[in-house]
What does this fold into?
Amino acid sequence: MVRANKLREAEAVYGDGLIGELREMLGPRHPAVLEALNSYGRCLMLQTRLDEAEGPLTESFRISRDHAGPDHPNTLYFQDTLAVFYLTQGRPEDGFEQFGDLLDIHAKKVGLEHPATFRILSLIFDILQRPGMTDQILPFFEQVVARHVDELGPRHPRTLEMRRQQGLGLLATGQIEQAEEILRDCLTIAEEIEAADSPNIREICGNLGWCLTVAERFEDAQPYVRRGEELAALRRSVDPKSYEQARQRTDRFYESWSKPQGVTWRQQ
It folds into this structure.
């Protein structure tokens, strides 16, 4: 309720003439005007008033792109918001087009390894895991993976993370064999280039274990589930949250298998 009230208050500020006053004082293309316009659109979007939000969001992005340039920080921020808006509105093709443009600009400007580029990828990861969105985004995500393989190589840590996420996406859509193949390949490469107790190896083991659990291949899954928790235990003091998540995954695994070994093993 408090958040909703604050959103309505913010909308009232922008909608009661502030944007018009700024336009008169600074001109329609001034960054402050565009930021106010975009903020107004975001207020409407967060209230799920999507039809009203589209105008301010698209206008602020278009003007910034045409006059400040497509790679200006404000333009990128407005485009980021617009991409999320399209997905919220149920227009995935438009949303993925914007994300694709953002990824191209960041990759050319600062490279695929830069944190700013990874932030865009993190948004895509989040969308990949949303119910109902995985099928729609997988073809786009496969292009992202192919780009990382081409530009960074198949053994680069960032490429491995892209492929791991691709495996999880395939698993979410029931493509278990393809997911297992990718996750096994990721684990093989990770074991060759990373320390034995690395967080990445732990994550891949946990993912592969869950993939095999979904396939009801419990005997095959058990060593990966156990290894994932054992690796998490090694880093328990620096990453207690991940350790607890690994313990929960192990509990779910044994519940699925209906076996008591999990309790016995943990007591050892």
